[in-house]
Structures are given as C-alpha cells and as structure tokens.
C-alpha cells in the first residue's frame, strides 16, 4: 500500500443539520467550525486524511463528511459501497433524522448484502446537550431502531458535538468493533513509522480519482468549550432508573448491562474491570 493512502475510509452519514460536520471537526480537533458559531452551511462532500495513534500502533484514516440531502444519491451510494466503516448520525431535536438513518441502513443492506458482516457501524445520537424537554427523539425510539436493525447497544454513542461530550467515544467504539470484528477492516502499522502529512481532499475528487486537493487543516485542539447555557443538561452520569434505556455513552453500565442481558430493573452493576473500550488510548497527529 502507498504510504500516502489511507488504511481505511470512515464515512459519516445522516440527515441535514444533525451535526455531522461538527463531529468530524471535533474528532480532528479543527479549531473553528461555522456550525459552532451558529452559521449553518450545507455540506456537499468533504474528506480529511489523518494519522491516528492507538496504543502502540498507528493508522491513517480518511474521514468523509457527506451531504445530508438527497440531492447526491449517486455519491452516497458509492461511499456506501467502498466504506470500511460508517458512522450514522441522528439528532435529539429532529425526528426526521431517524427516518433518514433508516433509509441509509436500508441502502447499506442493499448495497453491501454480501459483505455486511465486514462493515463497521456506529450509531451516534447527537445534540444530547439540549435540555431533556427539547428532546424529540427519545431513548425508546433509538432502542426500537437498534433492535430492528440488530445494532448492538455498545455500538451506540450518545454525544454532543457542541460540548464535545462522547466525541472521543465514537472513535473508541470504532476501534473496539474493529478488534471484535475479526476481519480488521482498519489496518494498523507500527507507531514508529514516520507519519505522513495531514491532508484535506474533495470527496468528489477522491471518488473519481482526481488529484484536486486543498490546504491541510490545522489540528490543534481548541480546548474545552463553554457549552450552551442551560440547566438539567445531559451528563455522563446515569439518569433515573425508571428510564427504560439509560441515556449515557455506549460504554456505561446501563448499556453494557442491557447488551449482555442483565436485569433491566437492577441498577447496581459490577465489573471486575472497566470495558476495554473505555481504556483504549486514541490520539491523532
């Protein structure tokens, strides 16, 4: 493999205005994002190549930010066919975003029916920083979707691109799936290998093998974000046990207990050690 080529392509898909672009920018530690400044600009397609370090190994990933509209079905179909991993993004404040996800999954099952088991898939529920009274997409609706399409609960991440909550968990969940999958769709090199330059590409150019490139983006972190001014916001702690589906990150006791068939009514969960997905170290360069 050419050292300049990515080891795998991770494609972000979901409806318009669900926060795909901001999530990608948060993961890549791009310091500015128009969406965070309240300026929404629809994405057609965008593509970034970055070096990720996981424990003692490194990998180069192409992260693809796709359009949330139905105006480019051919490009979406091509990405579905060639993706090593797909990150599905829906939003707490948009019920149509779940319908969009259902359509994407149906398309995935149609296009990848012969190698579906090889595809890494993470479902992200974004905008969990909003006050719970503003949540239109409920935990129960997410659970119904997961059950219908057999998405493991530990492959679901509740996140906020605005506050950065759960953002690193997205990639950690991806690494964990890659280990458990057994086919290793994401390949790693020795960490001692000389890192290649970070690059940003036109996703259209990538699909059609064009050499068009843009200036690389900066990757320095902008630190902690002050977040939205509100009370009763979503947190990493467990919500009251009366909730059927605990609204916490996919590595939480609530999710793990449900996934591994613990008693739903038992709110006391014990582990000999935390799930490895929580402890995996992931940085980018």
From TrEMBL:
Keywords: GTP-binding, Nucleotide-binding. It holds the Pfam family Ras. One of its GO terms (biological process) is signal transduction. One of its GO terms (cellular component) is membrane. PROSITE patterns: RAB, RAS. Signal peptide: none annotated. One of its GO terms (molecular function) is GTPase activity. InterPro entries: P-loop_NTPase, Small_GTP-bd, Small_GTPase, Small_GTPase_Ras-type. Residues 212-225 have a biased composition (Polar residues). Residues 212-236 are annotated as: Disordered. PANTHER family: RAS, DI-RAS, AND RHEB FAMILY MEMBERS OF SMALL GTPASE SUPERFAMILY. This is Uncharacterized protein.
């Amino acid at each position: 493999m050419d050292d300049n080529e990515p080891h795998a392509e991770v494609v972000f898909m979901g409806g318009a205005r669900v926060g795909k672009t901001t999530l990608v920018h948060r993961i890549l530690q791009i310091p500015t994002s128009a969406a965070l400044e309240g300026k929404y600009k629809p994405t057609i397609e965008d593509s970034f190549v970055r070096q990720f370090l996981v424990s003692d190994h490194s990998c180069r990933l192409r992260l693809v930010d796709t359009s949330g509209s139905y105006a480019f079905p051919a490009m979406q179909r091509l990405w579905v066919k060639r993706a090593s991993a797909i990150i599905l993004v829906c939003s707490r404040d948009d019920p149509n975003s779940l319908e969009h996800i259902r359509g994407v999954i149906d398309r995935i099952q149609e296009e990848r029916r012969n190698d579906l088991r090889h595809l890494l898939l993470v479902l992200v529920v974004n905008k969990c920083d909003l006050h719970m009274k503003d949540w239109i997409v409920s935990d129960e609706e997410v659970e119904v979707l997961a059950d219908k399409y057999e998405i493991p609960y530990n492959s679901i991440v509740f996140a906020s691109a605005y506050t950065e909550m759960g953002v690193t968990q997205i990639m950690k969940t991806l690494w964990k799936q890659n280990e458990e999958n057994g086919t290793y769709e994401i390949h790693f090199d020795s960490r001692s290998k000389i890192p290649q330059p970070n690059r940003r590409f036109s996703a259209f150019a990538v699909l059609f093998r064009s050499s068009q490139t843009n200036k690389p983006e900066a990757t320095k972190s902008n630190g902690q974000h002050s977040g939205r001014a509100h009370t009763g916001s979503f947190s990493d702690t467990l919500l009251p046990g009366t909730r059927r589906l605990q609204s916490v990150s996919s590595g939480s006791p609530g999710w793990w207990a449900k996934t591994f068939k613990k008693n739903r009514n038992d709110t006391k969960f014990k582990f000999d050690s935390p799930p490895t997905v929580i402890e995996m170290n992931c940085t980018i360069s």
